[in-house]
Amino acid sequence: MKDNLSLAAEKISNSSFTLAFTGAGISVESGIPPFRGETGLWNKYDPDILEINYFYNHGEESWGVIRDIFYDFFGLASPNPGHYALAKMEELGYLHAIVTQNIDNLHQMAGSKNIAEFHGNSSRLICPECHTVYPVTAVDLSILPPRCHNDQQILKPDFVFFGEGIPAEAWDRSFDYADRCQVCLVIGSTGEVVPASYVPQKASQKGAFIIEINPEESQFTRSITNLHLRGKAGEILPKLLEKLVEN
Ligand code: APR
Question: Which of 28, 52, 126, 201 could pair with 161 as two cysteines, CB 3.0-4.6 Å apart?
Fold first, then answer.
């Protein structure tokens, strides 16, 4: 009887298109707390600060909390062995795309290339009026709220706020990958947020083998997961990469 890690490696080795769907859990070992669960951010902060109309009506107040969470705190995080293992799997041809719910830019920093940012990315700020995009590193966040150089509008982090739609390009790519993949890794997500959680569900409906990596059970575990590698992404993914390389 093959152990679960060997079975997962075999499935990935035999797959011509493998997708990784990631959530906040893959960044926990980088020091970024998840949104839900005992240490979840929504236990400390009111998710309303990320509601789009609240932001447009209370830009100055929202920006204070947004800077605390996403720039002063998250901004110091760096990729962990889980992010690096996925980047290496892509480089070696074992992984073909990532759909991430995360806005922390850690997959990009780890060297992954083919990434659909389902909820956008905090490393960019955008003007809601003229749509000029600014790298956050080029903006002085000691003066809040940051304003567009063209029209003085309050800039918005280029990630999806509650009440906002999913960027069309990310949506199209994500569901195209879900249609095409033969294996879908589901890493560090409760599966509680829609429409993001439809991506692995679509993959499963189209016949993909679902490998879940999570220390806990999620909404996916008893519905679409075919193989649950129970544990931390930063520990399991490097071992999975090792299995793939040794095969
Ligand atoms: N490795 C893997 N998974 C982990 C780890 C770890 N080290 N630590 C925690 N987890 C799991 C938890 O068990 C949980 O299932 O990560 C998951 C985190 O769940 P959420 O915080 O709900 O994260 P996510 O599913 O990505 O949330 C989706 O909600 O608020 C919105 O836009 C936000 O993208 C986010 C979305």
Answer: 52
